From TrEMBL:
Pfam families: Adenylsucc_synt. Homodimer. The active site is at 52 (proton acceptor), 80 (proton donor), 181. It comes from Jannaschia donghaensis. The lineage of its organism: Bacteria, Pseudomonadati, Pseudomonadota, Alphaproteobacteria, Rhodobacterales. The gene is purA. This is Adenylosuccinate synthetase. Binds 1 Mg(2+) ion per subunit.
Length: 470
């Protein structure tokens, strides 16, 4: 059974657990994607719930040990705060590696890029002493741009939506920018380099946008104004433009460690999330390949970040949601307010059904279980282990919205613990009930714990498996 294969190393000196090492090097068979003599270790980090799982701390720890850090989806909505040597850095577009010297940060083609925000974030970081140059930052030439008209459209649509049908977007134009990408009318980074191309692209985009705006009662776009804005901002983006796929291929061939930094969470994935209350891009681990141009065989380890309970921002289904004192307590102890929007997050018990599902769709090799300390002091803990749909037990969340709405959580109860786990750095410091909880989570989601986080501090982590060295 699973538990026997992936049993935790419980003990004060827990050495990193090793599975049998995968074949490395050579050609043919499973080794076909491998490069002879290169011991590759490329890691994808994805949120395995609805985002806000605590990716920042784990990504920071991994990025310190990576050569290249690449973002592969989303836009400037990936807000997180890094604290390094007492300095606080706020990032929402640039990869975490940017604040560390000697790393290459990459924005892949899967990201939608707001050039004005890029400039602002770079200036802010430079003001804090971070060195940013085309040697440390590269942006995919084929990444689509977010324009001011995308933000306007985003906000106008949300305002026009009836309560209950709002998607809960951050209003930054990310969704409309992805729509233009798929509609083949996006303006991409490379288009900024040539005035004639830019004009053609803008005209093509506006033929669509002006029609949309008319329907929403908005004024048509000021074409010349937009072109002037784009020409003015172009050098600030073009400076970093590069064929990212090629750069990453060279890094991979040189055996450098690449960290693919996911934003948001797998339950917000455009295909596999709780549609339509999702983000506009693929979030699951496969997107690391298509969103940067590296082959799927180059990914060695997928780390899913999982919070020890569940939260969600905005509207949409949430079967294990708590509308009582326990939910209130999770929110308060976990400081569940959005970093970018300040919105209060909805809270609920751990939903093992959903995490098993996201571990499967992202091919997660191990999870980082975060915020275990938030569960301290609960007399009883519940885990959602299935759904009751009209008397039938389900072990997955169906895609049909009406069925989702009727899914009632089936809970398993476990005793909680009264001792504090905050700041624990070894299994020996955890109460027996906390270890049982973690083991039960592993069993239910059919995936082992690689890291366990017990406070916002980097050092307050129990390492079971190092994703770069597994
Ligand atoms: P992201 O959206 O997934 O990147 O989530 P963040 O990195 O913004 O994390 C959300 C919050 O949780 C931050 O304030 C972190 O400091 C905090 N956090 C991360 N791990 C832990 C943990 O193990 N325990 C506690 N109590 N807080 C944590």
């Amino acid at each position: 059974m699973f538990a026997a294969t992936y049993g935790l190393n419980v003990g004060p000196a827990s050495p990193a657990r090793r599975a049998s090492p995968p074949a490395r090097g050579g050609v043919g068979g499973r080794g076909f994607n491998r490069i002879e003599g290169v011991d590759m270790a490329n890691v994808v980090v994805v949120g395995a719930q609805w985002g806000d799982e605590g990716k920042g701390k784990i990504v920071d720890w991994l990025s310190e040990r990576a050569d290249t850090i690449a973002r592969f989806q989303g836009g400037h909505n990936a807000g997180h705060t890094l604290v390094i040597d007492g300095k606080v850095y706020k990032l929402s577009l640039l990869p975490s590696g940017i604040v560390r010297g000697g790393k290459l940060s990459v924005i892949g083609n899967g990201v939608v890029l707001d050039p004005w925000h890029l400039k602002k974030e770079i200036e802010q970081l430079r003001g804090q002493g971070v060195e940013i140059s085309p040697k440390t930052l590269m942006i995919a030439e084929n990444a689509p741009l977010i324009l001011p008209i995308h933000g306007e459209l985003d906000r106008a649509r949300e305002e026009a939506s009836a309560q209950g049908t709002k998607i809960g977007t951050t209003g930054r134009g990310i969704g409309p920018a992805y729509e233009d990408k798929v509609g083949r009318r996006a303006i991409r980074v490379a288009d900024l380099a040539d005035a004639a191309t830019l004009e053609t692209r803008v005209d093509r985009a506006l033929a669509h946008h002006d029609a949309l705006r008319r329907g929403l009662g908005m004024d048509p776009v000021d074409r010349d104004g937009l072109l002037a804005q784009l020409k003015e901002i172009a050098p600030s983006v073009l400076e970093y433009a590069a064929p990212v796929w090629k750069v990453l291929d060279a890094k991979r061939r040189a055996g450098k460690r690449i960290l693919f930094e996911g934003a948001q969470g797998a339950l917000l994935d455009i295909d596999f999330g709780t549609y339509p209350f999702v983000t506009s891009s693929n979030v699951i681990a496969g997107q690391a390949a298509t969103g940067t141009g590296i082959g799927p065989g180059a990914i060695d380890f997928v780390l899913g970040i999982v919070k020890a309970y569940t939260t969600r921002v905005g509207e949409g289904p949430f079967p294990a949601e708590l509308d009582d004192a326990d939910g209130q307590r999770l929110g308060e102890r976990g400081h569940e307010f959005g970093t970018v929007t300040g919105r209060k997050r909805r809270c609920g018990w751990f939903d093992a059904v959903l995490v098993r599902q996201t571990c499967a769709t992202s091919g997660v090799n191990g999870i980082a279980l975060t915020k275990l300390d938030v569960l301290d002091g609960f007399e009883t803990l519940k885990i959602c282990v299935g759904y009751d749909l009209d008397g039938e037990r389900l072990d997955h969340l169906p895609f049909a919205a009406d069925a989702q709405a009727r899914c009632a959580p089936i809970y398993e109860e476990m005793p909680g613990w009264s001792q504090s786990t905050e700041g624990a750095r070894s299994w020996a410091e955890l109460p027996a009930e906390a270890i049982k909880y973690v083991r039960r989570v592993e069993e239910l989601i059919q995936c082992p714990v690689a890291l366990l986080s017990t406070s916002p501090e980097r050092e307050d982590t129990i390492l079971v498996t190092d994703p770069f060295e597994d």
